[in-house]
From TrEMBL, chain A:
CDD domains: Complex1_LYR_NDUFB9_LYRM3 (cd20263). Keywords: Acetylation, Electron transport, Membrane, Mitochondrion, Mitochondrion inner membrane, Phosphoprotein, Respiratory chain, Transport. Coiled coil: none annotated. The keyword Transport applies. GO terms for cellular component: mitochondrial inner membrane; respiratory chain complex I. Residues 13-70 form the Complex 1 LYR protein domain. This is NADH dehydrogenase [ubiquinone] 1 beta subcomplex subunit 9. Mammalian complex I is composed of 45 different subunits.
UniProtKB/TrEMBL annotation, chain B:
Pfam families: Proton_antipo_M. One of its GO terms (cellular component) is mitochondrial inner membrane. Keywords: Electron transport, Membrane, Mitochondrion, Mitochondrion inner membrane, NAD, Respiratory chain, Translocase, Transmembrane, Transmembrane helix, Transport, Ubiquinone. The lineage of its organism: Eukaryota, Metazoa, Ecdysozoa, Arthropoda, Crustacea. The gene is ND2. Core subunit of the mitochondrial membrane respiratory chain NADH dehydrogenase (Complex I) that is believed to belong to the minimal assembly required for catalysis. Complex I functions in the transfer of electrons from NADH to the respiratory chain. The immediate electron acceptor for the enzyme is believed to be ubiquinone. This is NADH-ubiquinone oxidoreductase chain 2.
Automatic annotation (TrEMBL), chain C:
Keywords: Electron transport, Membrane, Mitochondrion, Mitochondrion inner membrane, NAD, Respiratory chain, Translocase, Transmembrane, Transmembrane helix, Transport, Ubiquinone. It is a multi-pass membrane protein. Residues 44-90 form the NADH-Ubiquinone oxidoreductase (complex I) chain 5 N-terminal domain. Coiled coil: none annotated. The gene is ND5. The lineage of its organism: Eukaryota, Metazoa, Ecdysozoa, Arthropoda, Crustacea. This is NADH-ubiquinone oxidoreductase chain 5. It catalyses: a ubiquinone + NADH + 5 H(+)(in) = a ubiquinol + NAD(+) + 4 H(+)(out).
Length: 145, 329, 569
């Protein structure tokens, strides 16, 4: 569904994102930290050169061209932080959603009596809060019929 | 009621008729055995007092009489110069008695009307006499015999598909089994007897369970609250009856299939295999409707445990316990 | 599930005990020159079914090495997996893995080999998908399906073994006139190729690095991947000329491919996995030349230093917060001095630097290959692969330890954790001494080799030169200039694509098409649906006959009688 536009980006945002992806790109190819700093400065220089352009068409083509260039020269092993999406340790720890606790069987729940007693209390409080805020839908429906 | 003197008399007469047929050297004595058998079975059918039952008994009587007449005529024709016609008529009469396929139409209405115990007798014990005579007089080399075997196999398999009554399903499966039995008997008596005994035990097990829970229609099955152990029992018993490999019911089928292949009766063998698939399918449908499809628990009645003999018969019929029979053959 | 606090120690202790038993049995058997058969006859008439265990010096030494590594790995993972909620499942899986490997090693019977072989495949799947992420599950799938190909080959060869009447193949080694089908060697070869990840099936080996690092140390050093090599060594008596020639080219290609790809790889564990692949290629190469004992020798030494390499990498990954990308390493020798020493030891051993473990086996293979004079192509490729090994090993060392700081964070407390460092030190010791010890045990008499001077120096020359080259390149990181080569090699010669999407996409699309047209289309309409409609009609007609009056029944009977008379007369 990549072709669906789900957000509207301002011009500044577009350029900033492009700059960030250019920096990442340079980092992937750099053999060491010093080389990366040098390349990053070069990228900055390129962006600064076109900072004061006013011709909208030219700006647009420039952005598109840069995107195309980044795509063509993309690294075969893009750098990912370990815990970010695509990284080596991403998704190792499963966090089950809160409602799973409601599906525990009674004997499982009995192992943590205090916690579940408090949980029931909190659920009731939350229901009261919810009905106060949004109204009782079930009752309304019943009323209409 | 079951041990009333008249009933005991009937049962003894049936057993006597079987002994008569088994041991008789002549066709005429065998015929007398058949007649005795018919007359003794009629009161059994009438043990349930209803309009349907009396109609069924009349139907049974008339068909059996017609068949007996044919057998007698066939026997007489042995004296005449055209012997081929004699065996043919004999075979026709015996097939009617067996309820084999082109002549099976009478069995259905009787099966529907009778209780479980007479049904069991009708499907098993009543077939001993004609089968024995068949073994003596007929063979698979006869074209008409071939036709009867094939049509029993096919009719028993396919016509059972549309049935929803448990009695009809068991009847059609027994028509299918008659096809197997006739093939087995044309090879040797021991294979046929073995098949028959195993068929008897497996059928006994499932009929006992149906009798216990008084199930006569497929729709009743999901409404029963079976205990899981009883479910398993019925499940395995029916699978064994259908002839699924690990169960006992598969063993005689295997023997017969091997014989048909070694005698290169490939048509019969192929029809047997494909039709046993269909038979297995309608047993499975019976069971799926009972246990697999979510198991609707409408009734809160707790089912009583089955009596011990049922378990015994079930274990005997499902597992290789029945294998011990092989030593008696 | 109650957690046993000392489960890891107990299992480790148990495995190390078994290791000593197996090792000393091996020494005894090799000094006596005997082997022991345990046969449990199970039955069978025309085909002999029996459970057999074969204890000879080969199986005992291999078992000892496997148990040594697994004992250390279990000890190591006590600390490595300490924070994991499912650590008990992990350790039991590892134990099952070792058990199925032991079955595989000890049985000379194709049926029980299948048992171990299938167990390895199944449990390796369970270990690769140990972390519940999407990446691991896809990696596990490619692993288990690639291995499944080998399982099927073994199953098929079992079917062929029925025709000779005994599943015990070590018996057949003594008979020259047994008529084996031509298919058996090919099937065994194919099975070994899938397990040892030779070229068309290489994709799963780097993918399986999604498993926890201790598992990689166990699986990719001594157990899973070497099962294929071991199988071929055991089946050496039926490998004919055709199979050997096929294996020669495949193994050379695998060696070359993995060497090149490792240079373009950035994931620490994948680099080590690819180096395993190139060493497996080396073993397969020596098998294809007929040097089975040398292949086995290299298998043992390689297992020891490769396990060490993985364990060191595990400490680095652990210390650097699960980061595996070597771009974020650099200058780690300051943080991890001990690990640096051990890992360099393993790396240099891998390169075949003299008097380390790898030297003894690798040098023998190279020199014997030279002596048999296998043609310029084979020799040249062999030397190139030797130098490729040096290139990627030195690149790894340079980028992670020597070179300038890369930008990641790391903590060096791991070096004071004895259950992490202990196994590493022990394995360093074994990979130092295992070379000479194993060579004395395996080869009582020295091998006689005649070579011209330039060939004798060839191996050392290639190793030295490539060492210098890589050092002068300061750890190659490729740039745009490499262009297509970097893409091609960076994506592992498109092998993952070939075994993954490339193979399945087209098939799945076609299958979808077929499903719509046939299975849910006219085939359904005319077969099952049509049968249902027609059969229903026929059956309704049939039922009408059956439930109607007795007169009709009798009419039908008489009709049949009439028909019969006509037929007879």
């Amino acid at each position: 569904m990549a072709y669906l536009q789900t957000e509207i980006l301002g011009h500044t945002q577009k350029v900033c994102r492009l700059y960030k992806s250019a920096l990442k790109h340079v980092f992937e190819y750099a053999p060491n930290r010093a080389a990366y700093r040098y390349a990053a400065v070069c990228v900055r220089q390129k962006f600064e050169e076109n900072r004061h352009l006013t011709d909208a068409l030219k700006v647009q083509t420039l952005i598109e061209d840069t995107k195309e260039e980044l795509f063509q020269k993309q690294h075969s092993h893009p750098f990912r932080y370990a815990t970010s999406p695509g990284g080596s340790a991403y998704g190792r720890e499963l966090k089950s959603p809160d409602w799973v606790l409601d599906l525990w069987s009674p004997d499982e729940k009995a192992q943590y009596p205090e916690y579940f007693a408090r949980r029931e209390e909190m659920k009731k409080e939350y229901t009261v809060y919810w009905e106060k805020k949004f109204g009782n839908k079930a009752e309304e429906l019943h009323h209409h019929h | 009621m079951w041990l009333s003197p008249s009933l005991l008399l009937m049962i003894i007469s049936i057993v006597t008729s079987i002994c008569l047929v088994i041991s008789s050297p002549s066709l005429f004595i065998s015929w007398i055995g058949l007649e005795l058998n018919t007359l003794a079975f009629l009161p059994l059918l009438l043990s349930k007092k209803s309009k349907l039952a009396s109609e069924a008994s009349i139907k049974y009587f008339l068909t059996q009489t017609l068949a007996s007449v044919l057998i007698l005529v066939g026997g007489l024709w042995f004296l005449a110069p055209w012997g081929g016609l004699a065996t043919l008529t004999l075979l026709l009469g015996l097939s009617i008695k067996l309820g084999a396929a082109p002549f099976h139409s009478w069995v259905l209405s009787i099966a529907e009307a009778s209780g479980w115990v007479p049904l069991f007798a009708l499907l098993t014990i009543q077939k001993i006499n004609p089968l024995l005579m068949l073994w003596m007089f007929c063979h698979l080399s006869m074209p008409f015999f071939y036709v009867v075997v094939l049509s029993s196999l096919i009719m028993g398999g396919l016509a059972g598909l549309t049935q929803t009554s448990v009695r009809s399903i068991l009847t059609f499966s027994s028509i299918n089994h008659v096809g197997w039995l006739m093939t087995a008997l044309s090879f040797s008596l021991s294979v046929g007897a073995y098949y028959f005994l195993i068929y008897l035990t497996t059928l006994l097990c499932s009929i006992l369970i149906f009798h216990m829970f008084n199930v006569s229609h497929i729709n009743q099955l999901p409404l029963l609250s079976f205990k899981p152990s009883n479910q398993m029992l019925l499940f395995f018993a029916l699978l064994s009856l259908g002839g699924l490999p690990p169960f006992l019911g598969f063993l005689p089928k295997w023997m017969i299939l091997q014989l048909t292949v070694s005698y290169s009766l490939l048509l019969v063998g192929g029809v047997m295999i494909s039709m046993s698939l269909v038979v297995l399918f309608f047993y499975l449908r019976l069971m799926f409707s009972a246990f697999m499809m979510g198991g609707v628990n409408l009734t809160t009645l707790s089912s009583d445990p089955l009596p011990f003999p049922v378990y015994f018969v079930a274990l005997f019929s499902i597992t290789g316990g029945g294998l011990s029979m092989i030593y008696f053959l | 599930m109650t957690v046993d606090k000392y489960l890891y120690q107990k299992i480790s202790f148990f495995l190390v005990n078994l290791m000593f038993i197996a090792g000393f049995t091996g020494v005894f058997l090799s000094s006596e020159g005997t082997s022991i058969f345990f046969e449990w006859f199970l039955g069978g008439s025309s085909v002999n079914f029996s459970m057999i265990f074969l204890l000879d010096s080969m199986s005992c030494f291999f078992l000892a090495v496997v148990l040594c590594i697994s004992g250390n790995v279990v000890w190591y993972s006590k600390s490595y997996m300490a924070l994991d909620p499912n650590a008990n499942r992990f350790i039991l899986l590892v134990l099952g893995f070792v058990a199925s490997m032991a079955i595989l090693i000890l049985s000379p019977n194709i049926l029980s080999i299948l048992l171990g072989w299938d167990g390895l495949g199944l449990i390796s799947y369970g270990l690769v998908i140990y972390y519940p992420s999407k990446k691991s599950s896809s990696a596990g799938m490619i692993t288990v399906l690639s291995n499944r190909v080998g399982d099927v080959c073994i199953l098929l060869s079992i079917a062929w073994f029925v025709s000779v009447g005994d599943f015990n193949f070590s018996i057949w080694a003594f008979y020259n006139n047994v008529e084996f089908s031509n298919w058996v060697p090919l099937l065994v070869l194919l099975a070994a190729m899938t397990k040892s990840a030779q070229i068309p099936f290489s994709a799963w080996l780097p993918a399986a690095m999604a498993a926890p690092t201790p598992v990689s140390a166990l699986v990719h050093s001594s157990t899973l991947v070497t099962a294929g090599v071991y199988l071929l060594i055991r089946f050496s008596f039926i490998l004919g000329e055709t199979c050997s020639a096929l294996l020669l080219f495949i193994s050379i290609m695998t060696m070359f491919m993995s060497g090149v790809v490792a240079i373009f790889e950035y994931d620490l564990k994948k680099i080590i996995a690819l180096s395993t692949l190139s060493q497996l290629g080396m073993m397969m190469f020596s098998i294809s030349l007929g040097l089975y004992e040398l292949a086995f020798f290299h298998l043992l030494t390689h297992a020891l230093f490769k396990a060490l390499l993985f364990l060191c990498a595990g400490i680095l990954i652990h210390g650097a917060g699960n980061t595996q990308d070597i771009r974020s390493f650099g200058g780690l020798s300051l943080n991890f001095p001990l690990v640096t020493v051990c890992m360099n030891l393993a790396n240099l051993s891998l390169c075949g630097v003299p008097f380390l473990a790898g030297f003894y086996s690798k040098d023998l293979i190279v020199e014997l290959a030279c002596q048999y004079s296998w043609g310029i192509f084979v020799l040249l490729m062999m030397f190139i692969c030797l130098s490729l090994t040096v290139l990627y090993s030195v690149r790894l060392t340079y980028l992670s330890f020597v070179g300038p700081y890369g930008g990641g964070t790391s903590i060096s407390v791991c070096e004071s954790d004895y259950s992490l460092v202990g196994p590493v030190v022990i394995l360093s010791f074994t990979s130092l001494v295992s070379g000479p010890i194993l060579s004395w045990l395996n080869f009582p008499a020295p091998v006689l080799i005649f070579l011209p001077v330039f060939l004798k120096w060839g191996a050392l020359f290639f190793v030295g030169v490539s060492l210098l080259v890589m050092l002068s390149l300061q750890g190659l990181t490729y740039s745009y200039k490499w262009g297509a080569v970097s893409k091609f090699s960076g994506l592992m010669w498109f092998l993952p694509w070939l075994t993954g999407q490339g193979f399945s996409m087209k098939t799945l699309k076609n299958a979808d098409h077929l499903l719509k047209i046939y299975d849910q289309g006219w085939l359904e309409f005319y077969s099952s649906k049509g049968l249902e409609v027609v059969g229903g009609k026929v059956n309704t007609l049939n039922l009408k006959f059956q439930h109607s009056s007795l007169k009709l029944h009798f009419l039908i009977f008489l009709l049949w009688l009439f028909l019969c008379f006509i037929y007879i007369l």
